[in-house]
Amino acid sequence: MSSQNQGRVKNRAPAPIQISAEQILREAAERQEQHVLDPIVKIHDAEEYQSHLRDRRKHFEDNIRYRREHIGNWVKYARFEEDNREFERARSVFERALEVDVRNPQLWLRYAELEMRNEFVNRARNVLDRAVQLLPRVDFLWYKYVYMEEMVGDIAKCRAVFDRWMEYAPDDNAWMSYARFEGRCGHWDRAKDIMKQYANAYPSARSFLRFAKWAEYEAKDTDLARTVYESALVELEPEESRQARVFSRFAAFEERQGEHERARVIYKHAIKLLHLGQESEKLDGEEEVPQWEQEKRNELYKAYIAFEKKRGDQSGIEDIVIAGQRAEYEKRVTADPTDYDAWFEYAKMEEENEAQSSDNNRVREIYERAIANVPPSTQDKQHWKRYIFLWIYYSLYEELQCHDLYRASKVYDACLDVIPHPKFSFSKIWINAAKLHIRRKDLVSARKLLGKAIGLSGKERIFTEYIALELALGEVDRCRALYSNYLKAMPHNCRAWSKYAQLEKSVGETERCRAIYELAVSQTALDMPEMLWKNYIDFEIEEGEGDKARRLYERLLEKTRHVKVWISFAQFEGTEAGKGIGAARDTFNRAHDYLKEAGLKEERVLLLDAWRVFEKTNGDAQTLAKVDSMLPRRVKRKRMRTDEDGAELGWEEYFDYHFPNDEDTNSANLKILEMAAKWKQAQQAQADSSSDDDDSDDE
Could you tell me where the DSSP H helices lie in 543-662? Predict the structure, then answer.
């Protein structure tokens, strides 16, 4: 049979006899045996007394024989003899017990208490002396020994016992007891020497703090307490001296003494050394801050905040806030060194704090730490954008805050060395570095830097800034050379062609300007040709060359028949540079005929709107009415909307235009539709009549 079948309950039916909890409790009470009290023994004479002692001793001896190692039996036996004033017998019992377990400290203690209760001082002294020799590490035997000596008033022997005890290097409480004993005796110099020996024997934060507390509260020596606190910070090992409770106790001591400046210095030193305000921080020679120590540091930081709120001024409170912010930023940049936003905020905070403290080194340290964290990827420019701004802010800080243009220039030089120019570059850095050279009045270095930038990156902005610089200096030939290189690198850039032509126009070189425009419009690929053609036409109009402008419009219409070109051409003809209003109307008519033939309804509407505005300004009522008669009627219609694959998505509404000139074609189409509808109705009527005839025949 399997184990599952063995553990399965076979009969789940209730038992025939049910037992209640009340019945169980009643039976348990009935079965308990009644407590039998010992009989009261009354003794009438000495013989009965001796008989009683023999019986009791026999009882104790039997217990000892039965359980010899049980010390309680021995102690009860000795207590019985003591109660009957049989001290020698009691001592004999303890001596016999010591033969059984001589290293039992409780047994020695009970033996000594026997002698002390009955004022056998020398015997008690002998017992305790034997006990501490045998068990020198049991502190309560020593405590009992010195307590007895002090109670009997033998100061010399008590001091001797303490000296013997101290040779075994006991715990802290033993030293404190020795010092308090000397204090009770009025020997404060001896007590101070004892505490010094204690601090030297146990060089730890605990011993120094207890020494300082004793000096302040018991010895009433504030100078000694301050010396002990200072020694704890200087003489102890780092793992002991950097504990938060040392600074906390020291600062609280100075505050109690009214030395608020001393307390503030201690708090600030703790903040700087322990990095207060952070959850955890690894110090020199320290693997990790324990949780309890971190809690103590948080309490110390809160105590400093409370101290500054109570005793400090505005600057002190600001220092607290800055220290907390600094700790928070340190935590963020430690967790993620490439969190450049945290570096920005950290540096900005230090710059604002620098205005009050005039400490440039801290800000520079932050920037140097920040720029040392180069983005890990050199393939994606996006990762470098925030990083590059760190360099820019660093240089601006050196220039604007420190007024050190040389260091600012070196910052840009270092940044340019870090950027991987073969993969990507940043025109902002090149331009800012060049402008900084100009502010340093070093034009040669600026030109060299911009020339190097054109060779390495060749970005549009570098060309424009370099040209603007040379143009501001009046170097037209240099500008022409730069525009030539600019257009060789980017022949499709219409903005560059326009700016080049405007440069020639500004210096009075009309033919050169026209030649540049001609060369520009002859390019096969342009990014914004409409802007280039417009600038070319505007140039000819400004020069009073209406025929050339008209020819340009005609050339442009050969390339594109866009409605805006037609409108601009017609408006040009209506100006003084054109042939007049008649030529403008002819152009509008040409455009309308072309758009009508091409079936571009929306473009025709735009053209007619512009034509109507033109007639309002330059025409009369008759010409305006003619244009109005050409305006279309807007009609709302529905059509099936489809996706890229041709699947139907649903019906949608749209607006269509019906032009008056197109009504003949539309009317013919409508007549065909009407005839088709009538034919369908006739077919339906004929089908209905035939069905009626069939029904009558069936009847």
Answer: 546-559, 563-573, 581-598, 601-618, 621-630
Q: Whole-angstrom Cα distance, residue 292 to residue 273?
A: 18
What SS3 class is residue 23? helix
- Paired residues of 636 in beta bridges: 655
User: CA–CA separation, 185 vs 177, rounded Å?
Assistant: 12
Q: How far apart are CA 493 and CA 486, in angstroms?
A: 9
SS3 content of the chain, % helix, strand, coil (to 5): 75, 5, 25
Structure tokens at 383: 């990762």
CB contact burial 477-514 (16+ within 10 A = b; e otherwise): ebbbebbebbbeebeebbebbbbbbebbbeeebeebbb
- Domain ranges, ordered by start, for the chain: 634-678
* C-alpha distances in Å from residue 90, one per residue of 57, 66, 119, 183: 11, 20, 15, 38
C-beta of residue 450 within 8 angstroms of C-beta of residue 434: yes
Return the pLDDT at 277. 59
Q: What's the pTM? A: 0.59
pLDDT at 302: 85
Q: What is the number of other CB atoms lying within 10 angstroms of the CB of residue 545? A: 17
3 state DSSP class of 642: strand
Closest residue by Cα to residue 209 from 219, 197, 221, 195? 195
Which tens digit of pLDDT belongs to each residue from 321-343? Answer: 777 788 788 888 988 998 999 99
Distance CA 449, CA 226 (A): 63
Classify residue 648 by its DSSP letter.
E
> In the chain, what is the greatest distance between 2 CA atoms, to the nearest angstrom?
164
Helices (H), 397-509: 405-418, 427-439, 443-456, 460-472, 476-489, 494-506
Written as six digits, the tokens of 614 are: 């033109």
| Cβ count near 618 (within 10 Å) | 13
638-686 tens-digit pLDDT: 888 888 887 888 888 878 888 886 655 455 555 565 666 677 777 777 7
Span 532-590, pLDDT tens digits: 999 999 999 999 898 999 999 999 999 888 999 999 999 998 888 888 888 889 999 99
DSSP string of 600-631? -HHHHHHHHHHHHHHHHHH--HHHHHHHHHH-
Question: How far are the Cα atoms of 232, 240, 286, 594, 640 from residue 237, in angstroms, in the given order?
Answer: 9, 5, 12, 97, 87
Evaluate if residue 115 carries a pLDDT over 50.
yes
52's CB contacts (< 8 A; 6+ apart) are 41, 43
Count of CB atoms within 10 A of residue 228's CB?
25
Helix (H, G, I), strand (E, B) or coil at 649: strand
What count of Cα atoms within 13 Å lies in the side-chain half-sphere of residue 129? 11
Rounded Cα–Cα distance for residues 262 and 233 (Å):
14
Which 3 state secondary structure label does DSSP give 543?
coil
Query: For residues 550 and 223, what is the distance between their CA atoms, to the nearest angstrom?
Result: 104
